Amino acid sequence: MKNLNPLLNRQLPKILNRILFAIFIISILGFIDAAYLTSEHFLGGTPECSFFRGCSSVTTSRYSVIFGIPIAFLGALFYATIFIIAMTYKEIRRFNTLIVLNGVTVVGFLVTLYLIYLQLFVINELCLYCIISALSSTMLFILSAVFLMITRKQDISK
């Protein structure tokens, strides 16, 4: 086991860089998805669904806006925030930044669970773009939690 520690210590920076890169890519994809839904909302259109049939029902439901603000716009802000926080961490490498990143992804994940609940049990329709966003926010939650745990163990072992 002692022989594995030096190997793991050499591989950790690569693993952490890959996780951070994945966070960047997923936040960009989530932003594009949410920005598309936001533009459809403001242009008065409804997105075409190829896999699920409920895009129109979900994106025009009374649950698609909060105080007149489209949920998709809030999603775009969420993904942009994740990207900015991750970029900030990449530049300054402060552990507190990871705590903020993780906190934001926890909130995003909880909102995602609620929105999926609404689609499944209240609206009774699923939106492909909403599912893509749900998968994106769930992956960001998992990746940021793993990143935080690995970084914390690395900081403790120093």
| Low-pLDDT segments | none
Classify the fold: give the CATH topology: de novo design (two linked rop proteins)
Task: Report strand %.
Answer: under 5%
Q: Give the CA-based shape.
A: elongated
Count of distinct structural domains = 1
Largest sheet: 2 strands, antiparallel
Which architecture would the CATH scheme give at its second level? Answer: Up-down Bundle
Q: Give helix and strand order, one letter per element, not per position.
A: HHEEHHH
**Helical/strand content category:** mainly alpha
Query: What is the name of the CATH superfamily?
Result: VKOR domain
Report on the architecture of this protein.
The protein contains 5 helices and 2 strands; from the N terminus they run ααββααα. By secondary structure, it is an all-alpha fold. The chain is 80% helix and 3% strand. A two-stranded antiparallel sheet has the order 1-2. It has a single domain, classed as VKOR domain (de novo design (two linked rop proteins), Up-down Bundle).
Please give a handful of descriptors for the protein shown:
mainly alpha, 2 strands, single chain, elongated, de novo design (two linked rop proteins), two-stranded antiparallel sheet, 158 residues
